[in-house]
Specification:
The chain is of the alpha+beta class. It has helices at 26-46, 52-64; strands at residues 8-12, 20-24. Helix 1 packs antiparallel against helix 2.
Length: 65
């Protein structure tokens, strides 16, 4: 599915024809950086009224989403 959405590029492995090499595309790199930006903003929102444990739990939860 990610290959069809241009986030992953599949290339034949010349060393082993049974497998493919997978590479993330520039589009995927951009999306990944945007996701990290959103997570940082979420931490900034949570941080002022939260202790360190709550922030760590919130970050862990956001990674699961």
């Amino acid at each position: 599915m990610l290959i069809g959405l241009v986030y992953i590029r599949k290339k034949e492995n010349l060393e082993d024809i049974r497998v493919y090499k997978l590479y993330i595309t520039d589009e995927a790199k951009y999306i990944i950086s945007e996701i990290f930006n959103v997570i940082e903003k979420l931490v900034d929102i949570l941080a002022p009224g939260s202790d360190e444990e709550q922030i760590i739990n919130s970050i862990a939860f956001s990674k699961e989403i």
